[in-house]
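Lecture 7 notes: from sequence to structure.
We start with the chain below.
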Amino acid sequence: MPLAPDLNGRIALVTGGSRGIGAAVACRLAEAGADVAVNYRERTADAEAVVAAIAQTGRRAVAVAADVSRGEAVAAMMRRVTDSLGAPDILVNNAGIALIRGIDDLTEADFDQTIAVNLKSAFLCTQAVLPHMRAQRWGRIVNISSGAARGAGGVGLHYNASKAGLEGLTRGYAARLVKDGITVNAVAPSLIETDMVKAGLAPTPARIPLGRFGTAEEVAQVVLMLVGNAYMTGQTVALSGGIAFN
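Predicted structure tokens for the same chain:
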């Protein structure tokens, strides 16, 4: 069995795909043979750079701007993706925000925005791709969670709640879609080497037993594994460098 799935003929949609984990996932999916829609909200140049990198692999790609926390924007994005590439067979719900707040600084607006972007967006995008996946009786959905779903984390309780909700959403969809040939899983990274992590959340990897931050590429490897595995569903795969064990 090959280590990477053969995704030739498949269409993938990656939300929040303009940089970091999303960009790494989009490129790995393309390397495995998929045509990829790269969703972004504001970083047009970054998204176009990911599309250009995918084009180097010989696969088709399109950058699609949309605020995936809004239903009408998701519907418009799906029309654009379907017209440009075809209906998605693979969905990676990666879009998210991490507003670092203490309990006394957290506002209702912060809480609502975090739930909308980190959790509601996954619901909206999943609902949008299900008709096609069900019709063909094949689909792969991977949600990007966080170790904060089960631990204290450093962002704030609003972030904890959004990621714990995302893992509940993962299990709920998995249980209801397993008979349709659709798998739904999550990946929960902790302390991946991003600008946000190094700038304030964890300036050094001192608390990681492995002795370094994780990489976006390592997260993408797990996403590819989940896309290629037809038997695993409803699971959360943690990447923490030894910080925590399931």
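Points to note: The two ends are 27 Å apart (CA to CA). The chain has one domain: 11-239.
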